[in-house]
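Summary for the funding panel

The consortium committed to producing paired sequence-structure records for every protein in the target list. Below we show the first two records in order, beginning with the earlier of the two.
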Amino acid sequence: MSAETLLQRITDYANRPNPYPLYAELREAGPVVQQADGSYLVGSYHHIAALLHNPRISADPGSLTDSTEEAPKPPFLRLDDPEHHRLRTLAMRPFGPPHSPGRIDAMRGQITEITTELLDGLQDRTQIDIVDDFAYPLPVTAICRLLGVPREDEPLFREWSDAVVASADVRAGEDITEQDRAGYQARIEMGQYLVNLAEQRRGHPTGDMLSAFINEPDPHNQLTREELAETGVLLLIAGHETTVNLITNGVLTLLRHPDQLDRLRRDPALLPSAVEELLRYEPPVHMRQRIPLADVDIAGTTLPKGTSVVLALASGNRDPERFQDPDRFDPGRTDNQHLGFGSGIHLCYGAPLARIEAQTALGALIPRLTTATLLQDPPPYRQNAMLRGPRHLPIELRQPA
């Protein structure tokens, strides 16, 4: 098949269970391959990293030259500096000082508590769905607590979140679709809910992030209502969507590699490096779209200003030019500077929280997984090719002999 159809084939749902042969084909075809729709696909680790650090490469979808309809202002995840830096800095203020051990330890304790509650509720079950019963409720509960969303309102967010994520897939500058409009409407409704919730805490802070945002005393550090809505929606969605995939892909990978599962059971100290390896081997985010603000030359190819450039992060993570034996899952791998959380100024805002959640979740699950079997392999996957992960992961739990 032609290399010009690679993006079409990668995003084809039929290839969702295993896109990795297509990524290998991409790297063979060249580090940069123009697609039939005019977009460019980049698959090598070093070129992806270079573009993620290039200030002439924009994350703002409004930079596309063939965008024919005005889109709503995106969250800071999809803005460029200096506006990106301003909003990201303001959003991080309630977390306290960067890399604060006290804040991280406090979150770890809460996540351990949530994990224990969920697993206690599954004690008598012989069959569970890792997604619905564990990998979804854990990070949703954690981010809702962090933001200050009442527990009884947590179910409201699944429908909203599904609509937003469905509209966030990789595309090459096509017109806004009905799916996009549904995602935009869900963002509006979720944002209004969060702003109203925050307003209830104006002058009556309750120790959560919404309280911190709405009660910020410094006028220079205050978010507008629109910014508070967009930031709250971003934190809520980004705070759980990728972690659901990370935990679920982790369970699937471990059950497919029983020798490595047993290795981790015997040596729990390997868990942090195992999570890093999962972020490389089966990352929750497979692609990112970028747009050159000027003509950019890379690997002998000119990326024209205003065109869609798709960075295949998952391909870079399997690049033999960067990783030794890249198709092997090795929880003890060192020198593992993967692209699982991206790189550059848009390095994942919630990476520390996602790492804690994955380490805690998998650490608690591993003793139970040693007697578990997959009931469906490959499992059914979500439609989204960019945020790739199983929609369900049914497993059978057997009592040890």
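The next record, for a separate protein in the list, is shown here:
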Amino acid sequence: MSAEDLWLVVGLGNPGPDYAGNRHNVGQMVLDELAGRLSASFSSAPRVNARVATGRSTPGGPRFVLAKPNSFMNNSGGPTAALLSYYDALPSHLIVVHDELDIPFDTLRLKFGGGPGGHNGIRDIAAAAGTGDFTRVRVGIGRPPGRQSAADFVLRDFTSTERQVLPNILTDAADAVEKIATDGLTAAQQQFHSPPPA
């Protein structure tokens, strides 16, 4: 398997059942959607401090390594750097899926490189990997209402109204990951940054 064939997809979040439904864990929810498409299940990989699932979504298509770090969100860098090394993956073939406060709920934004934009998980990955040149699938969760703090907002579960829409968001984000791997970032941006048809 060549490095060009492999895509490492890291879904950010916090470990354990208490956090599983939090907005901050939407990146890991997207990986669950992707794992279902690969008919793969996550298993513990202690050498990289993560849970990992692997497979191809189509015969002969790109090979995906899906990884959920066992660390807390702000310490995602260590496991991600270990995954890059263990799988001999190119940073340019790293896709990090994460929540984004500055993007409206039910919106996706895809980008390559750039700063962390206030996201501590992204900052830690860039520091540990020695580069910020990787792709981010940013899943919008919107800003907290009223005077609620951002820290409290991201650690709360999606509302019942949001949960009605959430499956569509997870599907779109998983589609975006596959599109990036098969057709490139520009094609994925053209598809997922466009307003939906009326």
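Regarding this second record: The first strand starts at residue 6 and ends at 11. The first helix runs from residue 26 to 38.
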